[in-house]
């Protein structure tokens, strides 16, 4: 069960990140792809699978945010990643702000990956 959920989680991470990068490219190039129905729906489906698999892994491993420091830090990283993603894709007023938010989001994503692999918090 654990390996199946872990693989689903890792696949959802890869798809979510890939879709984020792709949507950022489309936003920066003013592509009409951002108006496609699937572009508005699929990322939410992928992110729902990602969140559900994360919660399932927490339950299977009995590792919980606010109890395990590495998971708490990863959770705060996720919140930062979501906010930065909003600025990169929607809320940024200029392309420079969007690009800066994108770079910061990618850095936070990498930090979350390092924390997940090492199970060691970087800050807390």
TrEMBL record:
The lineage of its organism: Bacteria, Pseudomonadati, Pseudomonadota, Gammaproteobacteria, Alteromonadales. This is SirB family protein. GO terms for cellular component: plasma membrane. The keyword DNA damage does not apply. The chain crosses the membrane at residues 12-29, 41-63, 75-92, 99-117. Keywords: Membrane, Transmembrane, Transmembrane helix. InterPro entries: SirB (IPR007360). It holds the Pfam family SirB. The keyword Transmembrane applies.
């Amino acid at each position: 069960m654990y390996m199946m959920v872990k693989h689903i989680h890792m696949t959802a991470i890869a798809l979510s990140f890939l879709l984020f990068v792709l949507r950022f490219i489309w936003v920066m190039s003013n592509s009409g792809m951002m108006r496609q129905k699937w572009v508005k729906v699929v990322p939410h489906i992928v992110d729902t699978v990602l969140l559900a698999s994360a919660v399932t892994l927490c339950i299977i491993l009995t590792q919980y945010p606010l109890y395990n420091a590495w998971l708490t830090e990863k959770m705060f990283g996720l919140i930062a990643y979501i906010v930065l993603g909003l600025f990169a894709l929607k809320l940024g007023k200029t392309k420079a702000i969007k690009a800066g938010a994108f770079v910061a989001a990618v850095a936070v994503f990498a930090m979350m990956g390092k924390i997940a692999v090492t199970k060691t918090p970087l800050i807390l």
